[in-house]
Fold:
Amino acid sequence: MPCHPSDDCSGCKDIEILDLEVLEATQALERVAQRRRAIVYAQNQKHDRFIQGMPVEIATLILGLDVEQSIATNPSRPLQLAAVCKGWRELALATSSLWSSMACRRQGWPWRFPVDLVELWIERAGRRRMNITVSWDPRKLVGPFLNIPLTRTAGEGLGPLLNIIENHRDAVKHLVLKVPHVSLELLPSGHFQSFQKTTQIGLQLLTFPPHMQEFNKSLRISPTKLVVEGMVVLSECGELLRRCCSVITYCHLRRIVNLSFGPPPPTASLDTIHLLNLQHLHLTLMKSAVTPNFFQPFDTPRLRNLHIHLFSSGPTNSTLSFPPITSFIARLSATLQELSLQFDSVITEAQIVGILSGLPLLVKFYLHIDDDNQDIPPTPTSSALMMKLAETGTNVNAPEFLPRLQDLRVRQVSVPSWSSVADMFTAHSKLDSARPLKTMEISPGRGLTDIWFIDKDSLLRLLVLPANNLKFTIDHPCVLRSSILHHGLDTSLEVLTYYNI
Structure:
């Protein structure tokens, strides 16, 4: 800017000073940037030396263990390891096992999947067969009652992803889809049933269609693992099982509640559902949603694991009585190895023992009585079961009652007789115990145990280390601790350590 003779020169001098300060600041910024580059280089050198200082097999094993422990909660972990430094990046990209699991999750609005990364991820896995999970739960954004047109429009981005997976179907070992039912309309027509080399196809339906029959006809996937949850008519779940019965090995009907609005559901067919390959069945159902004939059609000749959890939101007159469950379990006597029962209603001791008497192959048994509902009287007890196990645990020959039982867990029940618990512990803590029991856990329920102090005779028998490897737990430490103090017993450190007191 030209100066005029009559002007004061102070303005020019101020500009000159500011220009000098800008230059000094620019130089200072460059020096700081150089220092940062030097520090980053030094850090990278440390990582490089760490990796280069050990055999490649060991370094690969370390990265593999890290990914294995964190991939469930952090699907991008392989990318993070590859971004640490040059050495780690080269190792990560050369280790195909790090990329054998891929979780594709919906990103924020506008909803989209990272499709561009999927192809690259599959390439990095090389020839390794992959575990791929695709998950999208739009209920978090649009609420539990979906706006179907909005969901269908938002789900269009799922199509390209499914096309890529379908094109690489020979590389897929396990495929899990956790999606609303609308998303299944985007499956390539007629092609998604051609995953011949896929060991497991999991389908977790987060929403259910209003017309189940139409959905069954249009379903283009045959899952081996099925999970359904939410507001679903239970009889329609049965029809879905009928649709998938030929290949399904695992089924979990999760927190199925009763639909109290809309037209009444169609009457469920009682024709046999031949679930010939089903091995694991988990049922978490609202009692009012279950009809007495729900279990009648099931033909499960290979079922090994059964979990039944019936819950209610309050005092209700359930249409389900206990005998239908008992008769269903009785049909599994030739195969059932694990049984878990969780109820919030009254179950008699005779019913518990009666169920178990017909299960000679049972290895694990869990009984859990919910006591959160204060309107339900806390009457269930475990004394009959303990007494039965105690009196049959000292037989010279194998007992007829649960001869293979290894794991017993009884939770939230009253313990009216600690003597029966001590009898059972004594019978199964010997080297020549007739039953191969390895784990026994007793968890007294809140407000159910009237006798908070264990009587001295029973306590003395419990405070003895087992001669075998039996792991016995009373999951209520204050009961043991208070009883020891109450009776003034001098207990060894080994026993206190055994009970974690």
